[in-house]
Amino acid sequence: MRLVAKHLTLAYTEGKRVIDNVDFEIPDHSLVSLLGPSGSGKSTILNMIAGLLTPTEGQIFFEDTDVTNLNVAQRNIGMVFQNYALYPNMTVADNIGFPLKIAKLAKAKRKEEIMRLAKLTHVDDQLSKRPAELSGGQQQRVAIARALARKPAVLLLDEPLSNLDAKLRTEMRQEIARIQKQTGVTTIFVTHDQNEAMHISDKILLLSDGVIQQYAAPNDLYDHPKNIFTAKFIGDPQINLFDNQETLNFFQKIFEGNIATVGIRPDSLSTIKNDFSIKLPAVLKSYTKFGAEELSVFTFFDEKLNGENVDGVNQEMVGKDVDLYVPLREIHGFDDNGIGVEPVISKGAIR
């Protein structure tokens, strides 16, 4: 099911827009994450798609059908919340089969579909148990199976991993991606965790204060941020940003338009030169290693410059001058309004 939002707006009070004139399209068979900080409007948009909230202005389409004023039951959606809301007195099999029972599916067909969904979500060995006997991850799988039992046109997942520990979150985001690929159901996944969104999504819709900051594939948000908000929100460690005039003058030669801020991601730094990179004269101030992760702190024009896994750098170099190189395509410029300015990527840009 292709989903389209046109001029979507929600205002709780006069003049205060929680969602402000949002337009987007979610392709059929795709998994799209709504990502942003608390209060950015992620769950609000999800609830409007579900029919739990009615937009003040704008329209929502499932394919060519305007569903803006349809209630939840009329929209053919499946939902999984942060609280899985399983029926505690029912077995796993009965929880999964409840929507099928409501739909009056024949008992034999119902049993067959319950087993299919249980196998899909890897809970086929838990069918006789009740929710209290299951782990958090197993409960989530049952909730997803129950949501899929309705054969939804759109599956909505609202922070479904937030109650799980770190290891289980990693496992379950992989499972959600697998289930979505196997079923092909259009899925919208709400999260505030960029790592979840980056790993699970075909595209990410990044929000701040009810406005779309960027809507693109995960790597595009990282490699080609359209504004400073995107550059800062995506990436851990956070991008290095410089706005002092001396640093801007140094980088201005690789940009056609005027820049007010320059951004360099910590993992863009290297001690290896190539024809399409620029040299940064720096001093290594500190170096720490945490397993596979190496974090370095340099000074560059008396400004702090963080590096991650910078090749050729080690503890013995602390306090010494280091020539760092950054590929031109990985230097991000931003104008006075915080909008991205592309660098000129050619050998001739460096003199």
Explain what this protein looks like in three dimensions:
The longest helix has 18 residues, at 166-183. This protein is of the alpha+beta class and 351 residues long. It has helices spanning 42-50, 92-102, 107-120, 136-149, 166-183, 194-200, 218-223, 228-233, 245-252; strands at residues 3-13, 16-26, 31-35, 57-62, 65-66, 77-80, 154-158, 186-191, 203-208, 211-216, 240-242, 261-264, 277-290, 293-300, 303-308, 321-327, 331-334, 340-341. The chain is built from nine helices and 18 strands. It is globular and about 75 Å long. The chain is 26% helix and 31% strand.
**In order across it, which strands form the biggest sheet?**
6-7-8-3-9-10
Q: What share of residues are in beta strands? A: 25-35%
Mean pLDDT: 93
- Let me know the largest β-sheet: 6 strands, mixed
Q: Give the proportion of residues in helices.
A: 25-40%
The total beta strand count reads 18
Shape: globular
Q: List low-confidence stretches.
A: 347-351
Order of helices and strands: EEEHEEEHHHEHEHEEHHEHEEEEEEE
The CA-CA distance between the termini, in Å, is 52 Å
Radius of gyration, in angstroms, nearest whole number: 24 Å
